């Protein structure tokens, strides 16, 4: 999937994968990959700056933990993040409907 196609949609997708449980960065990357059927294979240089941005904005909170002797930063959705996710879902549905309406207009026969 082209990076340009993600513009404006990455943040809500990240918030959606941490909606049900706190996850560390690698688990977020894996969840995005799995939920997208393998299409969202984000490089760490894309994901981690987005996580920091979402945390600075107050949509995610994080804490450090040690698992198996390794330090991990775990992210969880805040109440502001829940509101942002709800807004993102609404905006996505509107965007999807608009694009669908243009690309597949009702009553179009598909013939020129």
UniProtKB/TrEMBL annotation:
Residues 14-86 form the Transcription regulator PadR N-terminal domain. Pfam families: PadR. Coiled coil: none annotated. PANTHER family: PADR-FAMILY TRANSCRIPTIONAL REGULATOR, TRANSCRIPTIONAL REGULATOR RV3488. This is Helix-turn-helix transcriptional regulator. It comes from Kribbella koreensis.
